[in-house]
Amino acid sequence: MTSLFSKIIAGDLPSYRVYDDDQFVAFLDINPIQRGHTLLVPRVEVDRFFDLPEPVLHASMTVAQRLARAIEQAVPCNRVGVLVAGLDVPHAHIHLVPIQGTGDLSFANARPGIPEALADLARQIQAFL
E strands, 1-129, where? Predict the structure, then answer.
């Protein structure tokens, strides 16, 4: 069965895309736990993050580093936190979340994003890549 993220990658569902290459797509979470919450998703559809092929797993950290640097420039924060949970969508992905402290990494903080604000922020992050 095709995952929600595979549909986003294929362009069948809209997203606020900030990054796209031959292995990965990154887009803003539509229910961010903090402003700038970005999902890095491999194009290959694998349910569990640590079941990804080793080259994809390794490359994901290089792309995450590049995205985190861009996010930090677009969103004032202490640092960008990283979460690998993968329970809501059965497609491996990394959450990159601008934070001031560890309490900011709680999914209890999730709120629907405002489409215009998400689109504007996606453009800002792209500008730093």
Answer: 17-20, 24-28, 38-42, 79-83, 94-99
* Domain residue limits, the chain: 4-127
pLDDT in tens, 30-89: 999 999 999 999 999 999 999 999 999 999 999 999 999 999 999 999 999 999 998 899
The DSSP letter of residue 49 is G
Phi-psi region of 3 (alpha: psi -120 to 50; beta: other; left: phi over 0): beta
What CATH number labels 4-127?
3.30.428.10
The pLDDT assigned to 1 comes to 67
SS3 90: coil
